[in-house]
Write a structure and sequence with these properties.
single chain, alpha+beta, Aldehyde Ferredoxin Oxidoreductase Protein, subunit A, domain 2, 3 domains, six-stranded mixed beta sheet, 17 strands
C-alpha cells in the first residue's frame, strides 16, 4: 500500500509476545491512519467494560500515511487509548522524530495490550521488537532514562514515562525525546499500568512509497515556496506558540487566577519578548520535515535543571503556570514546564490543578502543610513534585481537579475548571463563545486542539460575544482537524483542505476530493462520539463549570462577559442539528448510515 508500510506491531506484554500484523486496507481507506485508525481499533477492541488501567486497555502509537514522507511537518503521530482521567477516548498528537523512525523501521503503528510482570521496555529495530528488562530504569526521571537509552542505542528515539506514570497519576504523559509529549488525559498512566517504562526505536532503512511520486514532490515544493513568506510561518518561527500570549492579552482570553479574570498587570512580564530579554531563550528547534522551527529552547539559571537546555516553554504552560497562578516570572514558568516533562506529568493539567489548589488554600478548604498561595513559584514547584510522587496533598490531586473537588466537596465543583474530567487549557471561554462550545463538545474533554476560535473572534471573522455562527464554525473545524490528525500533520501548517486532500491522494492513491477528506473527518468525529456515548456521555456532559456559565469576567477586555447556560444551550441545539445528532447529543441512525458507521 502506497503511503503505508503495511504492518502494525502488536505487542502483548502479558504473553511477552510481539508480532507484525497486516494493516487493514478497508480501515485505512475509511479512517486514514493516526487518530482515525486508532479510534476504530479502540471501538472494536476496548468495549465499555474495559477499565483504562486494566491490562485489556489498548495503548496505541499510530502513524498517518504522511508520517515520514516529504510533506512538511511529517514527523507527527497519534497516541490513542481510553483515558484514566476521563474514561473516554483520547488521542495525543506528537511531533519530533520518533514517528518517522518507527515508519522507517517498517511499521505504521504499535498496539500494546496486557501487562508485564515486571518493568520492561520495547526495543524496536527494522521489522523487529524485543521486550527487555527495565528494572534498572524504573523510578528514574524521563531525562535520565532518555540519556541512558540514547547512549545505549545511538541515533534512536524514545518514548518514556516518568514517576508520574509509574505512580498512575491520571494525567501522566509520555515524553518523547524529552521534549515532545503525548500529554493530555493520562496515556502515561496507561503505560505505567502495563509496567512499560519506555519504547525505543532505532532508525531503519525502509521508506514510504508514493502512489504518484512526481505529483507529491511537486506539491511539496509548491507548499515550501508558499511557506517561506506566509505570515503565520514567519510569526510562529519568531514567537512560537507564545504568540498567543499577546492575543490573549488583546482578546481577554487568558486564564487569570483560576479563570476568574482579575486584574493582573504583571502579565506584561510574560510576553514572549521577556523570554529573550531575561536570557532564558537559547534558540529554536524543529520537528522532522518542518520549516517553521517554532519550539523554543531555554536554559534555566536556578534549580536542579540549571545550565542545561530544554524544549520549553510553550504558550499553554505559560498561561497555566503564569497568570492562572498569578506568577509573573518566566524562570518559574519554564521551571514548572521542564519539571513536568521530567516527572512525566501533563503540564496543562498540572497548571490547572495548581490554580484550583491555590484557590482552595486561599478559601481555607485544604491544608497542604505549606503556603500554597497564588503567586508563589516555590510552592508551585513543590506541588508539582508532590503530585508526581503521590505524597501529601499531591496524592489528593492525583485524579485531577474533578477528583479533588469530589473529595473536598463544599461546592468546589463550581470552580474546578474541567470538562468531562479533563482540565481546561490556557483559554478562558468567558471571552470566547466559540471556545465555550468547542470545550463543551470536544471528543476528549476540554481540548484546544480540536478548534481554535479566539483568533477568528478577535479579528472579525466571527462576531464577538455572540452565539452567531459558532456551531457551524466549530463543527466544520472539528471534522477537518479529525482528518488532519489522521494524516498526521501539524496544527500549524496553513494548508487548505484541497492541499491536504491532494497530499493524501498522491501518497496513497485513494483519490480524495476536499469534500471527501472533510467527510472522512466527520466519520472519525462521529466514531469518537460513539465511544463516548458507549461510556455514558450525553448532553448533560457537554457543558462547562458553573464559574464559566454564571460568573462574569472580573476585569480586562472581556470584563462583564460570560457564556450563560441559555446561550450554551442555543449553540448546542444548533450544533447537534448540524451534526445530525438528536437533542441529547446522540448520533442518529440516519447519520451513522450516511457515514457508513
Amino acid at each position: 500500500m502506497a503511503g503505508y508500510m503495511g504492518k502494525i506491531l502488536e505487542v502483548d506484554l502479558s504473553r511477552r509476545k510481539a508480532e507484525a500484523v497486516d494493516i487493514d486496507p478497508n480501515i485505512a481507506k475509511k479512517f486514514i491512519g493516526g487518530k482515525g485508525y486508532g479510534a476504530k481499533l479502540l471501538w472494536d477492541r476496548a468495549p465499555k467494560e474495559v477499565e483504562p488501567l486494566s491490562p485489556d486497555n489498548l495503548l496505541m502509537i499510530m502513524l498517518g500515511p504522511l508520517t515520514g514522507t516529504l510533506a512538511q511537518s511529517a514527523g507527527r503521530f497519534a497516541v490513542v487509548t481510553k483515558s484514566p482521567e476521563t474514561g473516554i477516548f483520547t488521542d495525543g498528537h506528537v511531533g519530533g522524530y520518533f514517528g518517522p523512525k518507527l515508519k522507517f523501521g517498517g511499521f505504521d503503528g504499535i498496539v500494546i495490550s496486557g501487562k508485564a510482570d515486571k518493568p520492561v521496555y520495547l526495543h524496536i529495530t527494522q521489522d523487529k521488537c524485543e521486550i527487555l528488562d527495565a528494572s534498572d530504569l524504573w523510578g528514574k526521571g524521563v531525562f535520565e532514562v532518555d540519556e541512558i537509552l540514547k547512549k545505549k542505542y545511538p541515533g534512536s528515539s524514545s518514548g518514556v514515562i516518568g514517576v508520574g506514570g509509574e505512580n498512575l497519576v491520571s494525567f501522566a504523559c509520555i515524553s518523547f525525546d524529552k521534549g515532545r509529549q503525548a500529554g493530555r488525559c493520562g496515556p502515561g498512566a496507561v503505560m505505567g499500568s502495563k509496567n512499560l517504562k519506555a519504547i525505543v526505536v532505532e532508525k531503519g532503512e525502509k521508506r514510504p512509497t508514493y502512489a504518484e511520486e512526481d505529483k507529491f514532490k511537486e506539491l511539496t515544493k509548491e507548499l515550501s515556496r508558499m511557506l517561506k513568506t506566509h505570515p503565520s510561518k514567519v510569526k510562529r518561527h519568531i514567537l512560537g506558540t507564545l504568540v498567543c500570549i499577546w492575543e490573549g492579552i488583546d482578546g481577554g482570553t487568558l486564564p487569570i487566577k483560576n479563570y476568574t479574570g482579575v486584574e493582573f498587570p504583571e502579565i506584561e512580564n510574560l510576553v514572549p519578548e521577556k523570554l529573550w530579554e531575561q536570557g532564558i531563550w537559547q534558540g529554536n528547534t524543529t520537528c522532522f520535515g518542518c520549516p517553521i522551527a517554532c519550539t523554543k529552547v531555554s536554559q534555566l539559571k536556578e534549580g536542579e535543571y540549571k545550565g542545561k537546555k530544554y524544549e520549553a516553554p510553550e504558550y499553554e504552560m505559560t498561561a497555566l503556570f503564569g497568570p492562572n497562578c498569578l506568577i509573573d516570572s518566566y524562570e518559574w514558568v519554564t521551571y514548572g514546564h521542564v519539571l513536568c516533562n521530567d516527572l512525566g506529568l501533563d503540564a496543562i493539567s498540572a497548571g490547572n490543578c495548581a490554580g484550583f489548589a491555590m484557590e482552595c488554600y486561599e478559601k481555607g478548604l485544604i491544608e497542604p502543610g505549606f503556603e500554597l498561595n497564588f503567586g508563589n513559584g516555590e510552592a508551585l514547584i513543590k506541588f508539582i513534585k508532590l503530585i508526581a510522587n503521590r505524597k501529601g496533598i499531591g496524592d489528593f490531586f492525583r485524579e485531577g481537579v474533578r477528583g479533588a473537588a469530589k473529595k473536598i466537596g463544599k461546592d468546589t465543583e463550581r470552580f474546578a475548571i474541567h470538562v468531562k474530567g479533563l482540565e481546561l487549557p490556557g483559554v478562558d471561554p468567558h471571552g470566547s463563545y466559540g471556545m465555550a462550545l468547542a470545550f463543551a463538545t470536544a471528543d476528549r474533554g476540554a481540548c484546544h486542539q480540536r478548534v481554535w476560535t479566539p483568533r477568528a473572534e478577535l479579528y472579525g471573522k466571527l462576531k464577538r460575544y455572540s452565539t452567531e455562527g459558532r456551531a457551524e464554525f466549530v463543527k466544520y473545524n472539528q471534522d477537518e482537524r479529525a482528518a488532519c490528525f489522521s494524516l498526521d500533520l501539524c496544527d500549524f501548517m496553513p494548508f487548505s483542505e484541497k492541499q491536504n486532500a491532494d497530499l493524501l491522494s498522491y501518497a496513497t492513491g485513494f483519490d480524495f476530493t476536499p469534500e471527501e477528506y472533510v467527510h472522512t473527518g466527520e466519520r472519525i468525529w462521529n466514531l469518537t462520539r460513539l465511544i463516548a456515548v458507549r461510556e455514558g456521555i450525553s448532553r448533560k456532559d457537554d457543558t462547562l463549570p458553573a464559574r464559566l456559565l454564571e460568573e462574569p469576567m472580573i476585569a480586562g477586555p472581556s470584563k462583564g462577559h460570560f457564556v450563560s447556560k441559555e446561550e450554551l444551550d442555543i449553540m448546542l441545539d444548533e450544533y447537534y442539528a448540524l451534526r445530525g445528532w438528536d437533542k441529547n447529543g446522540i448520533p442518529t441512525k440516519e447519520k451513522l448510515n450516511e457515514l457508513e458507521l
